[in-house]
């Protein structure tokens, strides 16, 4: 694309995806682009991608559709960034990415785009999805039951994915009672580690306990990552309410006592329950 056409496109509201792709190409131009953008690599951009994905989830959690639109734009920019870098190296481009995911969606939804009927339940379709994914991994010569579970996932999410993979080949507790027994065992080992072992061993035992708690959540069909985010939000809201109540008396948490703040916590908790009735 010549300079005149490029300028026309990048300054054209409504230019959509082609406009964004051209803006990124210009930003990455080694001679006329932005020095910061030119210096970036796949590895340097990856943390931003993770951050943007979390910000998308945060906007959804808060029900802020205006912010969600903006955050989705930021997340899309990450994909465009990787595509431009890969195009510069003659590996692939944005079109290849879009075509790849389109073909994947066709292959994984034969009940919509193929000859299969659409009378299956959501649960059956999920099982079919996993079966198709397993076949795709075989085609790619991905070996090992746990191979391909991304290391960069949040730890709780990765724990559940690892457990699901193992469960497919029968390595799973059949009842939640057995998981609860394991939680009791791991709690006991944490106490023993606290009293007799060093920090490294204690960290290992805490990790084991968190892993089995994630497994318990999986058995109850609860997303532990979502559950913990919800608990974080609840804690944040209640603690901020404590700060407001203390501020009414001209004090801050550091000027209060644990007993007073705990009493305020219980009051706030009771107020929340009353409001829910």
TrEMBL record:
Catalytic activity, as annotated: ATP + H2O = AMP + diphosphate + H(+)
Keyword Hydrolase tagged: yes
Keywords carried by this UniProt record: Hydrolase
InterPro entries to which the protein is assigned, alphabetical: MazG-like_dom, NTP-PPase_MazG-like_C, NTP-PPase_MazG-like_N, NTP_PyrPHydrolase_MazG
E.C. no: 3.6.1.8
SUPFAM superfamilies for this protein: all-alpha NTP pyrophosphatases
EC category: hydrolase
NTP pyrophosphohydrolase MazG-like domain residues: 40-113, 178-238
Statement: the UniProt record of this protein carries the keyword Hydrolase: yes
GO MF, any single term: ATP diphosphatase activity
GO biological-process terms attached to the record: dATP catabolic process; dGTP catabolic process; dTTP catabolic process; dUTP catabolic process; response to stress; TTP catabolic process; UTP catabolic process
Family: Belongs to the nucleoside triphosphate pyrophosphohydrolase family.
Protein name: Nucleoside triphosphate pyrophosphohydrolase
